[in-house]
Fold:
Amino acid sequence: MPLPTPDRRPSRARRGDRGQAALDYLGVVAVVAVILGVIGTFTVGPSIVNGVGETFQRALCKVTGDSCAQLERAVCTVRTRATDVSVTGRAVIFKVGRGLNLLRSERSDGTVELTLLDKFSGGVEFRATPAGGIRFGGRDLGVSGMAQAAAIAELGGGRMWRVPDKAAADKLQDKLEEVMVGKGVSALAGPLGGMVSGALQKKLGVGSGIDLPEPTAHLGSLKADVGLKLDPGIRAELDLGAALTVGGSKNTAGGGTVYVASSPKLSAAVLGGLGNLGMDGEVRLALTIGVDGKPSTLALSATGNLKGGLIGKGLKGDGSLPVPKVTTGVAGRSATVTATFDLTTPESRAAVSRLLKASKPSGIKDLPGAAWDIGRMIGGNTRLDMTTYATDEKIYGGGLDLPQGGISADYKRTKSDLLDAWTRPAGGAWEQREDCLRA
Structure:
């Protein structure tokens, strides 16, 4: 069977001990990630996918006497719609921000997930002025060129609701939009004004004071972000960045997910900001904990995004007071490959246990054999999923930026629609996910 290609998709409509056990499994995350990465490299190659890859894995199961576990097919996200509102303030080198996000994810099984996130950020930002100096606490260090570097930490939390259908999602979304507006008003009003605003909203039954159903899960994350932006003065701009995020979710019914993610970013603007082309991505390792408190799956995913568009951006008058900017449209493509390893079988748990023991100084001699054992298990118990999306976003923003400080606000609408989806069961062959494409 040939490598999956987007032009073969069918047409569709657009629309205590438990805690310690989890920590123990997280101890092998780095080793498993490397092995998964190597396996992923070979299993998605042309002709190897359903030829050597499938034959090798099936032979491996038979020779070792292990059963090739069949992980359940993953539910696809077929379309998303998101709204982001953020406000950022800067004083000298210090920068703080507040962001609200409402995400709607429609899934192939008919269910819909609605996620409401609240994020706080703070850090430092150093700038070089057009005159040729880095302003550090108001002092010019004399470095030529226009540049800025930032280090920002972000703390986020939120709730996720999974509802049975679109009608239920529409009703809940109306309430969540009111909550989002209420939170935004409270944030802009300040601590005292926020208390008064919240009390008034609760009394009137609107905004952040309205009652919401019990969420399916509670979410939390901590993100460290560093970036460098260069403007050499030739009507071009280069933006580099990277972020590391640690987070997780706790399901109301029990269990949850712990993850770590790394996100690089590269974008360039040309012609005074009239055109933009950007690339970013994410590598995420996620451990799922079952309702019994034991790890059930380990998933490694890699996502790449390519986007570009035209930007309406106010040109700087005297170099310090730019006109408010508006981004009218950015379109792109996004692709994700995910490898999911089953941790529920006795064989996989025995392999992980052996690797943990070999990681200790007393068992270091057994490390090569333990690593081979875990690699063999991953080869037989890993499901691969590939998805491709069309993305589009519109960003409206404005603000004032002065040498000693400034404030800006952005409103962003983002959407994505599934273009193609494939899966390769553990020990099996690639199959197109027609159930996802028809949803």
Confidence is low (pLDDT under 50) at residues 5-69, 131-145, 312-326. The first helix runs from residue 17 to 26. Residues 6-438 form one domain.
